[in-house]
């Protein structure tokens, strides 16, 4: 790394012929200002160019063979779907209990000869697992049945055992429905799922078991799917079942429930499994207000902490939807950016530039139209935003926690669904699409591994892979170690020079002392940085404790949090503040930058998007920050620029402001209040998002340290830059 | 020269911190399953399995689960089966490791004080008392012991149900015994350390040098120079003050005391017989000594377990073709042996430092390294804080250690749990870690040599 080489620089005078890498490092360090300016600008430009550098997707795994077989889903199945739909709507309108639809599904599943069971779950409140993303799955085994036994949901699960399989792998279909109040579109998605399920129970080519989960989304889709997955992956052994006191209530309830359900056959409360999951498809039908010229399919793929399913899964869905079923495929995009004037301008510039390069050499494929660029950027921005938020965009997110690739498919029809003909055509398309996807996944010999896991989508058929999007990020954070090394070695040189003056036989003692304090003086600065980070870690646990107190509004909670954090910071300052002024601000800045770059690179592995957005805020702030008093010494023009830059960055870098801006850009500034921050923070920690940790463990301490440097009392000994 | 203020408070705080971690996090810390903390050799889970096998009258080594010493089974086995409700599974063992850590820290402190005394003595002989005053700011013993106790790596090892605290104690015991010239203790520590983890066998060189020549001192050439200087000045000035100097110098240049070494060898023999006897009693009906050697030392030397760890060997031997395997096994192990002689010649006057260098090198190249090994050598490094005050790259190494120790679990998570990374991700951190250790060893040795050069310059001036 640059820091490695950079630190080697200290005495060019003493050792004239040092190693090449050390000399290269010294060169970089000597021109650190130039290097950092160039790197930052290059990083920003490369980031803006990402939509241009996006490549077309391709199906990488040969075994998938999408669309190679004729679909078997016929109008017969559509009729079946319609019949099922009618039955549901009849039952649903009666609204006797929440179990009516489950019972109906159960009967039909048993009728087609598949296995059936009911999975009862209790909605669990959001818990705070700060390092959840980091721990293994088995850690989550202890479920807390803190809610009463009366509050529960009921998933119905059907399993088809594959005639050609060994029962070790499975494909999961999920259709969420609200058992309390079922609408036509949800009923339609159930009907579609059932018709596919009954078709699959008849086909001969299945090599993987099919699991159909009709998830009771009364308490949210995610909860239902997540608790089913938890039970699927954490078998309850007899030896430890005694420990869970709620087991009794669980058993009693489900027996009582099964009496209600009156489904004949073997015991339906036994949890059955079907091997490891190869892939999962969550699909639902949504009727949209605005009508389009074609039936459309929206794909949601973002899981927790910016994890994405394997790109091949999206590829086959896209391929089948566009080239076989003629659907219009959409993915989320940021609408506010679509109308942005500056983006259009950039797009036009790029278009012009593309034309120019094409003129120079026709082989250079750098042409992108302005509209394409704007659309790609808007899609990319939404992709980055949802990954950075770290909150899954649908119930498919629950699967990713168990390393299962899953996506949500949202089908929306062109016309109203009341028309029988339209509905049939729509069902036929949807059924064939899902059958085709299942058939492809069924062909898989291994887990999805061929294609990318780390990517951004700029269009349904265009992606930016990790190798490309890492370049802007790397360019952006490259100045950090270099500047850190430059500041450090500048300080070191100072120590060495004083030592050289003293280096006479007479005053050995003092030289030795100077040497000591000179070489290890960074420990003082490291202590300050460590203290601030420790404070931030304590801060990050406070919101959870505060949220235990009921009857407090978000604004009150936020104010209490802020007051507490400032108090604790003041206490820290009083205890440890005395030592902080001994070291110069250069050393403090150097250590702070080192900490920030470590944190950013760590975050770029956990959740790249957060790191990218964070780097765009932190890096300029860290690089530019200087004590205000020192800035006052500079010339008028320079002074004004420096002070304004520093103050702006200090305001923008404050995490709540940063969050506000991020949210404002995406969803509009209209509905932002003081309580919003608290709600946002709560959303982040309740979803175990690593972004929360990033904001509080890396971004906030970095900001506090920058403020500390800005308000630094004494002027540094040496003048840098 | 005074020790660090509030040493005992800080040490007690470190112990209290460990107990707090032990009591507050009953289940959340799954450190025992982390590859960085527990290796196949030191994992307490494996030890519990071995104990169970032995209780069932089977060889503890059957099934390639346990690879440690049979003595540890008798020693820790009882503790592993006791459970307390609401506490971590190996609660009693962890409590014992806290005590072991404390003893290690106390021994390091005692070693440091001995080193400081010897340093002062040799500086007085060399007429460098000004240097003594200047360098006496930090008491290396207190400092090193606190570094050992508060090192996050030590704390993680202590909490992480791995037996490396005991290995570390044995190594430190050997060094302490050699420094204070207690041959039985040195022999005990060396024999047990070797028995537990094999690699400390190379410590016999520094231990013998310590027993033979005494503690770390500036190169003996300096004393000779001083002697000749003093005698010439004596001849010129006839001053009464200097008449004492030659005698002191003679004391400072220790001749190799064969008596101590023979004493040590005798004790080594006694302890070796003792260990073998205990082991054979322990394994009387189940296996016997030959199986023990095969399953412990053989397991270490042939790198059978290729599960990922922070070293570099697992990746290499997972890739290498089978018919080259033996060749590369020899190459890798000889790598450590090659460095013994040159380093011993160059650093023979600083035997304690030599021991640190050996430990650092072996923990870098050993087949199943863990962070417990780095905890040990970082603690020992702090013993030489006065000599290494002007070490280069200190900041870089500090950042590197922090970065790697944070990055390594994340990469492991990415590979094993998320499935989005692959083995190369994790191996990259292992490689970076090996590089850091190399830089640390190279820089510390070169700054120690520079320190010696500076002393020579000062003496000759």
Automatic annotation (TrEMBL), chain B:
Q: What is its main location?
A: endoplasmic reticulum
What keywords is this UniProt entry annotated with? Endoplasmic reticulum, GPI-anchor biosynthesis, Membrane, Transmembrane, Transmembrane helix
The way it spans or sits in the membrane comes to: Multi-pass membrane protein
Report the record's Gene Ontology biological process terms: attachment of GPI anchor to protein; GPI anchor biosynthetic process
Instruction: Provide a GO CC annotation, any one.
Output: GPI-anchor transamidase complex
Q: Which residues cross the membrane?
A: 91-110, 169-191, 198-215, 264-284, 296-317, 323-345, 352-371, 391-411, 423-442
The places in or outside the cell where this protein is found are:
Endoplasmic reticulum membrane
Pathway(s) this gene product operates in, as recorded in its UniProt entry: Glycolipid biosynthesis; glycosylphosphatidylinositol-anchor biosynthesis
Q: Which family does it belong to?
A: Belongs to the PIGU family.
Q: What is this protein called?
A: GPI transamidase subunit PIG-U
What is the source species? Musa troglodytarum
């Amino acid at each position: 790394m640059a820091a490695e080489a950079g630190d080697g620089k200290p005495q060019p005078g003493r050792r004239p012929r040092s190693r090449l890498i050390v000399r290269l490092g010294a060169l970089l360090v000597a021109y650190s200002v130039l290097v950092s300016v160039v790197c930052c600008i290059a990083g920003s430009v490369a980031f803006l160019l990402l939509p241009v550098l996006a490549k077309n997707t391709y199906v990488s795994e040969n075994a998938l063979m999408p669309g190679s077989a004729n679909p078997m889903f016929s109008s017969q199945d559509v009729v079946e779907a319609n019949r099922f739909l009618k039955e549901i709507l009849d039952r649903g309108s009666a609204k006797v209990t929440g179990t009516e639809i489950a019972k109906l599904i159960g009967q039909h599943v048993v009728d087609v000869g598949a296995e059936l069971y009911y999975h009862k779950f209790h909605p669990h409140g959001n818990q705070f697992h700060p390092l959840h993303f980091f721990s293994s799955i088995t850690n989550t085994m202890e479920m807390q049945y803190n809610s009463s036994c009366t509050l529960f949901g009921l998933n119905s699960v059907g399993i088809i055992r594959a005639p050609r399989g060994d029962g070790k792998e499975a494909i999961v279909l999920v259709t969420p429905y609200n058992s309390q109040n079922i609408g036509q579109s949800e009923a339609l998605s159930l009907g579609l799922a059932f018709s596919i399920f009954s078709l699959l129970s008849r086909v001969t080519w299945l090599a993987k078991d099919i699991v159909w989960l009709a998830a009771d989304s009364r308490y949210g889709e995610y909860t239902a799917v997540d608790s089913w997955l938890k039970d699927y992956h954490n078998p309850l052994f007899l030896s430890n079942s005694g420990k869970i006191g709620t087991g009794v209530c669980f058993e009693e309830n489900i027996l009582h429930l099964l009496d209600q359900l009156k489904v004949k056959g073997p015991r339906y409360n036994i949890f059955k499994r079907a091997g490891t999951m190869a892939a999962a498809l969550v699909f639902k039908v949504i009727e949209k207000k605005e009508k389009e010229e074609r039936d459309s399919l929206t794909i949601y793929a973002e899981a927790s902490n910016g994890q994405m399913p394997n790109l091949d899964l999206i590829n086959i869905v896209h391929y089948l939807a566009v080239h076989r079923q003629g659907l219009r495929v959409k993915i989320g995009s940021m609408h506010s950016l679509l109308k942005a004037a500056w983006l259009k301008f950039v797009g036009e510039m790029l278009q012009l530039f593309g034309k120019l390069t094409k003129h120079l050499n026709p082989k250079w494929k750098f042409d992108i139209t302005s509209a394409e660029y704007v659309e790609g950027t808007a899609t990319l921005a939404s992709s980055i935003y949802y990954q950075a938020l770290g909150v899954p965009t649908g119930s498919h997110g629950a699967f990713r926690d168990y390393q299962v690739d899953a996506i949500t498919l949202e089908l929306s029809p062109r016309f109203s669904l009341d028309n029988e003909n339209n509905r049939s055509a729509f069902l036929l398309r949807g059924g064939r699409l899902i059958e085709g996807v299942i058939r492809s996944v069924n062909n898989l010999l291994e887990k999805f591994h061929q294609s990318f896991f780390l990517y951004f989508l700029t269009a349904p058929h265009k992606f930016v892979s990790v190798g490309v999007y890492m370049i802007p990020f790397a360019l952006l954070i490259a100045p950090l170690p270099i500047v850190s090394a430059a500041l450090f070695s500048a300080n070191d040189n100072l120590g060495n020079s004083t030592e050289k003056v003293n280096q006479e036989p007479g005053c050995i003692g003092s030289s030795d002392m100077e040497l000591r304090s000179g070489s290890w003086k960074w420990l003082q600065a490291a202590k300050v940085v460590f203290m601030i980070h420790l404070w931030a870690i304590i801060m990050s646990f406070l919101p959870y404790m505060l949220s235990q107190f009921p009857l407090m509004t978000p604004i009150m909670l936020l104010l209490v949090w802020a007051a507490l954090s400032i108090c604790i910071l003041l206490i820290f300052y009083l205890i440890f503040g005395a030592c902080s002024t001994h070291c110069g601000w250069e050393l403090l800045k150097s250590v702070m930058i080192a900490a920030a770059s470590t944190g950013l690179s760590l975050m770029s592995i956990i959740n790249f998007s957060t790191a990218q957005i964070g780097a765009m805020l932190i890096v300029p702030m860290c690089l530019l920050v200087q004590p205000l008093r020192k800035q006052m010494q500079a010339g008028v023009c320079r002074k004004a620029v420096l002070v304004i830059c520093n103050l702006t960055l200090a305001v923008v870098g404050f995490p709540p402001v940063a969050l506000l801006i991020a949210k404002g850009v995406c969803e509009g500034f209209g509905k932002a209040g003081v309580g919003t921050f608290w709600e946002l923070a709560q959303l982040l920690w309740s979803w175990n998002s690593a972004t929360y940790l990033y904001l509080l463990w890396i971004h906030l301490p970095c900001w506090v340290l920058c403020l500390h440097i800005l308000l630094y009392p004494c002027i540094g000994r040496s003048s840098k830059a | 020269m005074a020790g660090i203020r509030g040493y005992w408070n800080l040490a007690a705080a470190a112990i209290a911190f460990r107990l707090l971690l032990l009591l507050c996090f009953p289940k959340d810390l799954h450190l025992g399953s982390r590859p960085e903390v527990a290796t196949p050799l030191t994992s307490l889970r494996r030890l519990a399995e071995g104990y169970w096998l032995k209780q069932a009258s089977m060889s503890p080594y059957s099934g390639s689960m346990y690879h440690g010493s049979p003595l540890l089974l008798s020693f820790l086995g009882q503790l592993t089966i006791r459970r307390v409700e609401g506490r971590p599974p190996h609660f009693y063992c962890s409590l014992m490791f806290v005590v072991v850590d404390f003893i290690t820290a106390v021994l390091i402190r005692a070693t440091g004080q001995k080193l400081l005394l010897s340093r002062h003595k040799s500086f007085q002989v060399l007429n460098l008392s000004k240097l003594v005053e200047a360098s006496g700011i930090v008491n290396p013993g207190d400092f090193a012991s606190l570094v050992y106790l508060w090192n996050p790596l030590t704390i993680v090892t202590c909490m992480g149900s791995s037996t490396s605290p005991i290995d570390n104690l044995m190594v430190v015991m050997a060094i302490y015994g050699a420094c204070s010239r207690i041959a039985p203790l040195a022999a005990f520590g060396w024999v047990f350390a070797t028995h537990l983890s094999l690699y400390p066998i190379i410590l016999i060189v520094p231990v013998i040098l310590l027993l033979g020549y005494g503690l770390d001192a500036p190169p003996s050439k300096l004393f000779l120079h001083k002697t000749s200087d003093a005698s010439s000045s004596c001849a010129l000035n006839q001053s009464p003050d200097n008449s004492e100097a030659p005698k002191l110098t003679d004391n400072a240049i220790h001749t190799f005391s064969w008596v101590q070494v023979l004493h040590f060898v005798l004790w080594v023999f006694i302890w070796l017989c003792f260990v073998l006897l205990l082991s054979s009693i322990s394994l009387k009906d189940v296996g016997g000594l030959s199986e023990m050697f095969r399953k412990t030392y053989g397991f270490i030397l042939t790198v059978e377990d290729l599960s990922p760890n922070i070293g570099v060997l697992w990746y290499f031997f997972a890739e290498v073709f089978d018919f080259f395997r033996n060749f590369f096994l020899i190459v890798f192990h000889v790598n450590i042996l090659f460095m013994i002689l040159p380093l011993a010649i160059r650093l023979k006057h600083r035997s304690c430092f030599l021991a640190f260098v050996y430990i650092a090198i072996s923990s870098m190249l050993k087949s199943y390294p863990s962070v417990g090994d780095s905890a040990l050598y970082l603690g020992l490094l702090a013993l030489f804080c006065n000599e290494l005050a002007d070490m280069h790259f200190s900041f870089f190494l500090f950042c590197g250690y922090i970065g790697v120790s944070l990055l390594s679990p994340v990469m492991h998570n990415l590979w094993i749990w998320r499935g989005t990374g692959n083995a190369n991700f994790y191996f990259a951190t292992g490689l970076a870690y090996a590089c850091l250790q190399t830089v640390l060893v190279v820089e510390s040795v070169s700054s120690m040599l520079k320190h010696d050069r500076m002393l020579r310059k000062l003496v000759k001036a």
